[in-house]
Structures are given as C-alpha cells and as structure tokens.
Design goal:
Bound molecules: adenosine-5'-triphosphate, magnesium ion
Number of strands of chain B: 10
Oligomer: heterodimer
Radius of gyration of chain B: 18 Å
Shape of chain B: globular
Largest sheet of chain A: none
Largest sheet of chain B: 6 strands, mixed
Distance between the termini of chain A: 29 Å
Shape of chain A: flat
Number of helices of chain A: 11
CATH architecture of chain A: Orthogonal Bundle
Mean pLDDT of chain B: 94
Low-confidence stretches of chain A: 1-14
Structural class of chain B: alpha/beta
Strand content of chain B: 25-35%
CATH superfamily of chain A: MetI-like
CATH class of chain A: Mainly Alpha
Helix content of chain B: 25-40%
CATH topology of chain A: MetI-like fold
Low-confidence stretches of chain B: none
Number of strands of chain A: 0
Number of helices of chain B: 9
Helix content of chain A: over 70%
C-alpha cells in the first residue's frame, strides 16, 4: 500500500472486511426475502412434505423405494466427504503454489488448475476408471474418490488463492515488522483470516460435490442414484424411483445451502470467528 | 551523541521508476526526525527500507552498528528492535486488542504469558485504552486502533520507532489523540522517524525536518529555521502548498 488514497483500503473505522466472489460452484439461495413463501421454504418443505406424504398414502412403491436407498445415501456421503477432505489438501497446496514466487512451482500449480478445470468431471471419471484402469487397477469407489478429489482440488486451489490474496498486504507487513518469520506470520496471521473468508465458498464446493457425486454411479459405485436406478430397473417404476431420488437430493442440497448461507451471514456480521 | 541510524547512498527503483535516488541520512539516538515531501517522493520507501520491508538496490543502512542491508544480517533480530506504525493500522482483526499486543512478545521474544500480559496492560494504559483490552479491533475507532498499533509496536521494546503517515487515515477529531501519544514518546527519548504532514507535531516534538523530493533529500533543518527560512525554492513551494 505504498500509494493510493488513505481510505481506499479501510473505512474510517478502519475495519476491512475481505470478501471473495467465487463464481463456479453451486448457487447459494440468495436472500429473496420472501418470508414464509421464500423460494427456499417452498422447495425445502415442499420436498420434505412429498417425501413424507407419498410413502404414507402410497406405500407401494414409495415406502419400498425409501427403504431401498439408505445404503446409497451412505455411499454418496462417504464419497463426498472423503473427496472433499482430499480436495482440501490438494487445494491448499495447489493454491499456495498458485501464489508462490518460485516460478516453476507456480507454473505447475497453474497448469494443474487449468487442465482440470477445462475437462468435464464425467470425462475425468471415465479417464481414471477406464483409460487409466489397466494402469491404476482401482475399484469403482477409490477411482471415484481419486477423480473427484483431483477435480475439486483445482477448484479449491482457486478458493485458497483468492482467500489468501483477499487478506490485505499490510497484515503480512505488520507481522514481519514485529519480527515474525514469514512462515509464522502465515500460520498465525494470514491463514486464520483466510479461513473465515473461504469457509462459505468451501461450503458451496461441498454442495456442488455432493451433487456431482451422482456421476460416480456410472463407475459401479452404489450411491444414491445407482440404488434408485437398480430399484427402477427391477420394478419398472421409473417415475416413482427417480422422483424419490430427486427429492432426496433436493432436500440435502437445500439443507446444506441454508447452512452455508447462515454461516456466511454470521461471518459477515461478526468478522471474527470466536 | 552517537549516530544511531546511518543511511548511505540509498538507491531503490521500481522498474524504471527511481523511488530513492541516493539518500544519505544519519539519525542520532533519541532524535525525532520528521520527513515531509510530495506524494511519490520516496518517503515511505525510505522508511520501509530501514526495516527491510523494501530491499535497496544499492547503498547501505545500519542501526546501532548492525547492518540492515547485508544479506547475511539477522533481519528478524533487527526488526524486533524497530517498531513500525502504518497508515492503515494493520491490527490483526482476528485477535483481540490484548492478543494483538502480546502475540509478538510471546512468540518472537519467547516472553512468558504473564510478563507479556503485564507489559501489554501497562502499554494500553499509556495509550489510554485500558478498558479496551478485550475489544476486537473492528470495535474501535480509527484513532483507538492506531493507538493500539503503537502499543503493539512498543511491546517489542524497540530502540527506534518508524511512523508512516500515522494520522492520515484518521478523521480530524482523532488525530490529536494519536499525536499526543507520539509526543509523549518523543519526550521519553525514543528515536523516531516520522512521515507526516502534521505541522503541529513538527513544532511540538521534532528535532529535525527533512524535505524529500524525487527520491532525494532536498533540505533539512530544525523546525524553527525550516519553516521560517527555507533555503530551496522547491521547499518553499511545497510549504506554501501544505501550510
Ligand atoms: N511496490 C511498489 N511497486 C512499484 N512502485 C512503487 C512501489 N512502492 C512505491 N512505488 C513508487 O515509488 C515512488 C515512491 O513511492 P513512496 O511510496 O515511497 O512515496 P511517498 O513519498 O511515500 O508518497 P505518498 O506521500 O503518496 O505516500 C512512487 O512513485 C511509487 O509509485
Ligand atoms: Mg507514503
């Protein structure tokens, strides 16, 4: 901040609120202030009502479907949670690489991000499972997790990069001027502030991954969608099966997006995570 | 009095832009030096070179005999002895006021928690903010934040304090509370280099005024003579501008 108007960085109270906009990922329900009839309320409670009413009034096939899919739900969550953990680790390193001053580290990280973001996830899944299958010899679930982690790692990298860059340069300078080492300043000053900036976008990625995990059903992973498909193909109840699957996905995504929205609101309101 | 900070032929450019163009300056222990000059004249760059937030292209700087510019010197040790206060305060927003102040003493100087806490409380009292110990930085006014920033720098028990436009981000009614803290510090004998255009401070506490333009020191003098009879035409024009 060598130049520029004195107040460009902070308002007169001196409170800088770094925020970042990450455009890929899911769409968090923006506050449409519709009260009880907000789009979120209608969809969420509507879906839940249907999931309760349908099996009540028409147990065959809805109750059967509902009791058939919990295994798939478990698989969907396992793949999602394990993948997001790996994606976070990959993303942290790739993100640090993207802002590294070492040219080749920077280049490797940037190339990774560019390549991965340029290839559809479905193609990446096929690539790891079928194209590299003879080489990697992975079963469906590990292949799915590997592909999802590598793919989402690239998106996470961009979130980490943006998050770190959203912290004003003066923070690092103040820490260095106090005699801290660069790594200690990273650990005690920059990363803690970054976390509160990136938590909402990471939540978004989690939701996106939860939805995208339905793609792994083609790799012989018995996730929610695949369980629905299995039921449908034996019972020929396609409409009913996929209706239930769609409603379950909808309830989950809406639930988590509300959670992320609340978290975002809290972080905005009270900048410090206590 | 011995020379405490010695700057010799300092040169620094950013691309084709010459920010420092051969600056020589010696500062005595306990001296309070005020640096003024037009925007872009290199004031911040000079100050930031003293604790090596900027690296010189050539020339040398030493503090108390210790070289800042030698690649081999222990820059972290030097920075511990040089406090810096920024225009934008740069408090750590995720730490409470008291933790902003104790963080460096405990982690860098390995001071015990109790000692650091005791020190921090004394410093908060000194800057008149004892009751804000448990506040978050964003709950404070700009003037209060800057006073905490001064306390945070003082907590390292520095031998020199650098101030880069400490009051220019503040609303007018808050400037005085910060200047008062700085004037007290000057009276206690702290060696200080200050970039500021607060002429009230210049008259109250400065031993010497330095006028910079285009990366060079154009003129320097004690405040009385500096304001009443500037030698250089450039200085005169600048003074007309700000007074
Ligand atoms: N990091 C940087 N990168 C490129 N140019 C820089 C950088 N820092 C400073 N400069 C340039 O160097 C010159 C001197 O800047 P400096 O910040 O030292 O001036 P200053 O006297 O402090 O000005 P101001 O009163 O506006 O703060 C300016 O032209 C500025 O644009
Ligand atoms: Mg400046």
């Amino acid at each position: 901040m060598a130049k520029g108007s004195p107040r460009s960085e902070r308002d007169s109270k001196g409170s800088a609120r770094p925020t970042i906009n990450v455009t890929d990922g899911t769409l968090i329900p923006l506050k449409d202030e519709g009260g009880l009839l907000s789009a979120w309320n209608i969809s969420f409670f509507g879906a839940i009502a249907l999931l309760v009413a349908l099996p009540l009034f028409s147990p065959d096939p809805y109750l059967r479907i509902l009791s058939f899919v919990p295994d798939g739900l478990f698989a969907t969550f396992s793949v999602t949670i394990i993948s997001i953990c790996f994606a976070l680790i990959i993303g942290l390193f790739a993100g640090l690489g993207r802002i590294s001053q070492r040219a080749w580290v920077n280049r490797i990280a940037t190339v990774y991000v560019e390549i991965i973001r340029g290839i559809p996830l479905l193609v990446q899944l096929f690539y790891i499972y079928y194209a590299l299958g003879p080489l990697l010899r992975l079963q469906g679930p590990p292949a799915a997790i590997l592909a999802m982690s590598i793919c989402y790692g690239a998106y996470m990298a961009e979130i980490f990069r943006a998050g770190i860059q959203a912290i004003p340069k003066g923070q690092m300078e103040a820490a260095l001027a106090l005699g801290m080492s660069r790594s200690s300043a990273m650990r005690r000053i920059i990363i803690p502030q970054t976390i509160r900036v990136i938590l909402p976008p990471i939540g978004n990625e989690f939701i996106a991954l939860l939805k995208d995990s339905s793609l792994v059903s083609i790799l012989a992973v018995s996730d929610l969608l695949r369980r629905g498909r299995e039921y449908a193909s034996t019972s020929f109840r396609y409409f009913e099966s996929y209706t239930v699957i769609a409603l379950i996905y909808l309830v989950m995504t809406l639930f988590f997006s509300r959670l992320v929205a609340i978290m975002e609101e809290r972080l905005r309101h009270r900048g410090n995570v206590h | 009095m011995a020379t405490f900070i010695e700057i010799k032929k300092a040169v620094k450019s950013f691309g084709s832009l010459q920010a420092l163009n051969g600056v020589d300056l010696s500062v005595q222990k306990g001296e309070v030096v005020l640096i003024i000059g037009p925007s872009g004249s290199g004031k911040s760059t000079l100050l930031r070179s003293i604790n090596r937030l900027e690296r010189l292209d050539s020339g040398s700087i030493s503090i108390d005999g210790e070289s800042v510019t030698d690649e081999g010197s222990d820059i972290r040790h030097i920075r511990q002895e040089v406090g810096m206060v920024f225009q934008s305060f740069n408090l750590f927003p995720h730490l409470k006021v008291i933790d902003n102040i104790t963080l460096s003493p405990t982690t860098v100087l390995k001071m015990s928690k109790e000692e650091a806490l005791g020190n921090a409380r004394k410093l908060l009292a000194k800057v008149g903010l004892s009751e804000k110990e448990h506040s978050w930085p964003d709950e404070l006014s700009g003037g209060q934040q800057q006073r905490v920033a001064i306390a945070r720098a003082l907590a390292m028990n520095p031998k020199v304090m650098l101030f880069d436009e400490p009051t220019s981000a503040l609303d007018p009614e808050m400037i005085k509370e910060v200047l008062d803290v700085m004037i007290d510090l000057a009276k206690e004998g702290m060696t200080m280099l200050i970039v500021s255009h607060e002429m009230g401070f210049a008259k109250a506490a400065a031993d010497r005024i330095i006028f910079m333009d285009a990366g060079q020191i154009v003129e320097e003098a004690p405040p009385e003579t500096f304001f009443s009879s500037p030698r250089e035409e450039r200085t005169r024009r600048f003074l007309e501008h700000i007074l």
